[in-house]
Amino acid sequence: MANLVKECDKAGQILKSFIEKGRIPAQVIANAKGLAIFSGFRAAMYLAGAGGSGVVVARLSDGSWSAPSAFSVRSGGVGLAYGVDVYDCVCVLNTQEAVEAYMKSETTLGAGATLAAGPVGGTADISTKEVKPIWTYTKSRGLYGGLTVDGTVIKERSGINAEAYGAKVTTVQILRGETKWPSTTRLPEVLKTAEERSVDVKILNAVSPATPGNVNM
Q: Where would I find the Ysc84 actin-binding domain in this sequence (predicted)?
């Protein structure tokens, strides 16, 4: 059964895979109000259903990251011809309103044209890029870009959060910094390296480069 530490470690793997390939500029992460990191699958034609899971963190007033809140993913239209597509996604939340959408028990991505592909490249100049509320980065079986997450439904996994923080703790409290990080997850070190801050190299090296979106099916 999944728990919050496992979800955090998976998120760390996904974020690290984008960083190592130079896909997400450090400035993008440094300016972010929040990050939602998840893996999912999309089914087309005769295979019904689509889903996945991940975690979201929010920037606190002191510049640090909040503890993570777990969520599930449910997708609508897929735009694929046949079969199942497994993908990884990093959503960079550029506004407080985008972060607050993840504080709801359920929200849908893409409403009001709030999504756009994020700037690519470790040294990219983002000053000329129109800042959307959410920048997305996707990867499917090792191929970057080309996927849209519009219409994806994000729903709080209250059971996993309750197991980690206590039954009365809400997503709002988690993302406002009223809870502590799970002590055994490596995700904080990946977040540090994403912002080009000093990290514990030993912990970072223990994060596997394999992610769900690299799986061949």
A: 75-193
How far is residue 141's CA from residue 55's CA, in Å, rounded to a whole number?
A: 21
Alpha-carbon distance of 172 to 104, in angstroms, equals: 8
How does pLDDT run across 25-75, given as a tens digit for each residue?
999 999 999 999 999 876 654 444 457 899 999 999 999 999 999 999 887
Specify the DSSP class assigned to residue 11. H
**Which residues lie below 8 Å from residue 125, measured CB to CB, with a gap of 6+?**
none
Integer-rounded Cα radius of gyration of the chain: 16
Interatomic CA distance for residues 156 and 105, integer angstroms:
5
For residue 20, what are the CA distances in angstroms to 13, 25, 55, 190, 210? 10, 11, 20, 11, 12
Quote the pTM value: 0.86
Helix (H, G, I), strand (E, B) or coil at 71: strand
Contacts of 6 (CB under 8 A, 6+ apart): none
Q: Please give the single-letter amino acid code of residue 151.
A: G
CA atoms within 13 A on the CB side of 82: 0
pLDDT digits (tens, 9 = 90+) for 148-177: 788 888 999 999 999 999 988 999 999 999
Residue-number span of the structural domain to which 56 is assigned: 4-214
Quickly state the pLDDT bin for 210 (edges 50, 70, 90).
low
